[in-house]
From TrEMBL:
Record gene name: dksA
Descriptive protein name: RNA polymerase-binding transcription factor DksA
PROSITE patterns documented for this protein: ZF_DKSA_1, ZF_DKSA_2
HAMAP family the record matches: DksA (MF_00926)
Swiss-Prot/TrEMBL keywords: Cytoplasm, Metal-binding, Zinc, Zinc-finger
Similarity section: Belongs to the DksA family.
Subcellular location: Cytoplasm
Amino acid sequence: MPEGTKKLGVLAIAGVAPYQEQPGEEYMNDKQLGHFKKILEAWRNQLREEVDRTLSHMQDEAANFPDPVDRAAQEEEFSLELRARDRERKLIKKIEKTLQKIEDDDFGFCDSCGVEIGIRRLEARPTADLCIDCKTLAEIKEKQLAG
């Protein structure tokens, strides 16, 4: 997320200013769907650029250091970068799934109960597919199963 990208005190995601709802506006109208599509595409593009930068960095910096400590430090750095890129790869898949939901006119509604997720929640997490209540319940169940 670009630093300093603010509007009305709220950080913009992927350089796109938060959506300003109009009174009486229909939920998930074409304007709102276009807004979230723009956010998701910009976010996906940022992640892809980061992947390209990492690949380029690793190719440029790859060296066969004779000193085992230097070699280990480089391998650890690359390992951390690859782990971060793997998380981003998974996020790109989730973004693409969400973009498909926009195309299928199924975006903005909870996958579990069908209620509106809400503009503010989607601004914070554009890939959200559960309303806050269902997400909270899912997290409680997850903690119970893990504990």
